[in-house]
Design brief:
Layout lengths: L13 E17 L10 E10 L2 E6 H16 L21 E6 L4 E6 L6 E7 L6 E9 L2 E10 L2 E8 L17 E7 L4 E10 L4 E5 L6 E3 L1 H4 L8
Length: 230
């Protein structure tokens, strides 16, 4: 995928790709031991929706970027002493960024498995074939319809809101006539639920360069350390 050249900046090195139209917040819950419901991992992810690109990434990473930008501009961070900065405390383990190029119909994934480097690879946008089924529900205050699909060998269920005319959703899920509000696999050991969907106010949708790490391409190597469900 061909991305624009870097935009001059005195903060993080970035490629500015697009301007947001919508910003959707998803709450991800993962039960690594399905039989033990008390052991659960929770993360918040942002889905930034632009005209040309869509970006799905950890909300805390976006917060860290914003705080770091502010620190540099206001000169409040003491980089010379190696002190732990406010922004560093917001970094997450094993961050994953998924970037959709809507024109080229490709997806670029950048992952950083713990102690395993940073990987980036591009692949064609997956064509997900949904089947509408009975099971309407109310999710985050919206009346949603239910659909199901088999993706990479697993059965997933999704609830989408037709009144929000965005054919998109978390991770790689899209293709229904409405924004995806809830997605979960059979067994319910994992789910993504949207908590907020609102128009954005000219936030830049960007892809930052990794600091201190070299990118290594390749889907096979990049899958090392990934969550096994996708």
């Amino acid at each position: 995928m061909s991305l624009p050249t870097p935009v001059p900046t005195d903060t993080l090195a970035k490629r500015v790709l697009d301007v947001e139209r919508y910003r959707i917040t998803y709450q991800m819950k993962h039960w690594p031991i399905p039989q033990d419901t008390f052991v659960v991992r929770e993360y918040q992810y942002l889905l930034q929706v632009g005209e040309l690109y869509q970006k799905f990434w950890p909300k805390r990473w976006q917060m860290a970027d914003s705080i770091y930008d502010h620190e540099v501009v206001s000169k409040t961070a003491n980089h010379a002493t190696g002190r732990v900065h406010i922004s560093e405390r917001l970094e997450v383990d094993d961050p994953e960024v998924i970037l959709r190029d809507l024109a080229a119909q490709t997806i670029t994934t950048r992952i950083t498995p713990l102690l395993n480097g940073t990987y980036e690879y591009s692949e064609p946008n997956a064509e997900i074939k949904w089947k509408l089924i009975e099971g309407d529900s109310i999710v985050a205050g919206y009346k949603c319809r239910q659909a199901t699909t088999v993706f990479r060998g697993r059965r997933f269920f999704a609830w989408y809101a037709p009144e929000v005319e965005l054919s998109t959703g978390p991770v790689r899920f899209a293709g229904l006539p409405g924004v995806l509000r809830l997605v979960c696999p059979r067994g319910g050991a994992l789910h993504w639920a949207s908590a907020l969907c609102r128009p954005a106010r000219a936030y830049l949708l960007h892809l930052r360069y990794p600091w201190g790490l070299s990118l290594r391409a390749g889907r096979a190597r990049g899958d090392q350390g990934l969550r096994p469900h996708l």
